[in-house]
Design a protein that fits this description.
The chain is α+β, with helices and mostly antiparallel strands. About 25% of the residues lie in helices and about 25% in strands. The chain has two domains: about 160 residues, Uridine Diphospho-n-acetylenolpyruvylglucosamine Reductase, domain 3 (2-Layer Sandwich), CATH 3.30.465; about 150 residues, Vanillyl-alcohol Oxidase, Chain A, domain 3 (3-Layer(aba) Sandwich), CATH 3.40.462. The strands form five sheets. Strands 15-16-14-17-18-19 form a six-stranded mixed sheet. The protein has a five-stranded antiparallel sheet with strand order 3-4-8-6-7. The protein has a four-stranded antiparallel sheet with strand order 11-12-10-13.
Length: about 375
């Protein structure tokens, strides 16, 4: 059921017994399989409603493609610093919020949750609910917008979102330093992580030969980048400028490095736990570590099979790419009790799906 207005969404929710929300379908593994549920498609709910370049904020309908948003921002030299994913594949603003996914730029500027200001969503009774506001400084009650980040459609149908934005850097430069072992690369990562340097993005890529590379992206005035790069190189004790800088980060944002037919799992972690996760991954898997080692992206043919490993390491995982299954969540979920209470409060009629965790017992409803 493809809808084009908020009123249509309200009527559809009121008429349905169970509801599953679908956007552009760029992350199919996140779409839960719910028997007899009405699938509400919000990709037709599209359009930029307000944009105030001087205030660095915009408001758009949830089905608005991120590409449309980025094009409008670019005209005024502004952007979303968290590097939203899958923009070229058609990802929507609402889908980005519901999935809670951010790209490499979250290292310096924070993730998507740090830029959401306000939302409107349709609850299980078909009522339109507002949370947050449309200005950067606002104290409009309970912080519903942040609770919707990564909610996976469990609490309602997002229909309108307000974000803050930043001025876009005038130029970028990326340094790549190669090391003979993961241990050596981690040491370099930690040195740069703790150095008083402004680095926009900091990733670590293991290689098939047992080595690893550290990639550091700098953004700002073109005239200042060479000197800044020298300071970064001194900390890394290696490194050379990457000529295809834009393409490198594009490959990461669009997830085009993921082999066709394989699944992709996002694993939040701390840099100090990176080595343990890397050692526990199957030999046939591939991994890239982003945000200074705070996020792992793991690809393998059967992503659900990673659940026991994550559970043993006390880590959580989210299947981002792959076929829909019983659940996209793997490993542990310490926030499950709070999430269940929140769902009871926001969705008392139980119209929206509850997303269980593979590897962790499901809580009683």
């Amino acid at each position: 059921m493809s809808l084009t207005s908020i009123a249509q969404v309200q009527e559809a929710v009121r008429a349905a017994q169970r509801v599953v929300v679908r956007g552009a379908g760029t992350k199919p593994a996140l779409l839960p399989t719910v028997p007899d549920a009405t699938i509400i498609e919000v990709s037709g709910l599209s359009g930029l409603l307000e944009y105030e370049p001087a205030e660095f904020t915009f408001t758009a309908l949830a089905g608005t493609p991120l590409a449309v948003v980025q094009a409008a921002l670019d005209e005024h030299g502004q952007y979303l610093p968290f590097d939203p994913l899958l923009v070229e594949r058609g990802a929507t603003l609402g889908g980005a919020l519901a999935s809670g996914l951010s790209g490499p730029g979250r290292y310096r500027f924070g993730g998507l949750r740090d830029f959401i200001l306000g939302i409107r969503y349709v609850d299980g009774a078909g009522e339109l609910v507002r949370g947050g506001g449309k200005v950067v400084k606002n104290a409009a009650g309970f912080d519903l917008p942040k609770l919707m980040v990564g909610s996976l459609g469990q609490f309602g149908v997002l229909v309108e979102l307000t974000f803050k934005v930043f001025p876009r850097p005038r130029a970028y430069l990326t340094l790549r330093a190669d090391y003979p072992s993961l241990k050596a690369a981690l040491a370099a990562l930690h040195r740069l992580y703790n150095a008083p340097l402004d680095v926009d993005a900091l990733d670590l890529w293991p290689s098939a030969d047992g080595g690893a590379s550290v990639l550091a992206r700098l953004g700002g005035a073109a005239s200042a980048l060479p000197k800044r790069a020298e300071r970064v190189q001194a900390v890394l004790q290696a490194g050379a400028e990457t000529p295809d800088e834009a393409q490198l980060w594009r490959v990461l944002r669009e997830l085009s490095w993921v082999p066709v037919g394989w699944g992709l799992v996002k694993v939040p972690l701390a840099p100090g736990r990176l080595a343990a996760l890397a050692a526990a991954l199957p030999s046939y898997s591939q991994a890239r570590y982003s945000a200074g080692g705070n996020v792992a992206w793991v690809v393998l043919p059967n992503p659900a099979g990673l659940a026991p490993t994550l559970t043993r390491l006390d880590l959580a995982g989210l299947i981002v790419q792959g076929r829909p299954g019983s659940s996209p969540r793997l490993g542990v979920h310490p926030g499950a009790p709070f999430e269940q209470r929140l769902k009871t409060a926001l969705d008392p009629l139980g119209k929206f799906p509850t997303i269980p965790v593979l590897g962790q017992p499901r809580l009683a409803p």
